[in-house]
Amino acid sequence: YRSPIIAAAGVDRLVRTFDIRSPAQGPLAVLPGHQYAVRKVAWSPHLSDVLLSASYDMTCRVWTDGSAVGLDGSGQQQQQQGEEGQGGGIRMGMGDPSSLAFGVGRQLGQMERHTEFVMGVDWCLFGAEGWCASVGWDERLLVWDVRAVIGS
Description:
This protein is mainly β. It has one helix at residues 146-149, and strands at residues 5-9, 15-19, 29-31, 38-43, 50-55, 60-64, 83-84, 90-91, 106-111, 118-123, 131-136, 141-145. 32% of the residues are buried.
């Protein structure tokens, strides 16, 4: 875990990450993708840059906030290519469908097995990394492997 980094989401359908040590900086990453409000976000206990989100659009999505991208051997951030936005992040080109994206975070995959609103999602703390569970208004508890949806 990275205790100073938090994730927030809501009715605007965006997942945002913030560094609470510098609140005036604004979001580190803005992650668009959900079609309806986001109900829950959860950081991976195994991979510090990966989080899950659950939404009323009946999907769970896997994200990276981009913090593991572009680090050189000394742990310093390398300059990324693209237009610089506020806070030194990279803003996607205006013609890009994800033009709301900010920072180097991105969606890694999504799980679409629920048939109603997804109300919760969380990671398994035990066993192999990548297992999680989600629950929805369809009265189902789904246990799934995040690694199986990455790239989908």
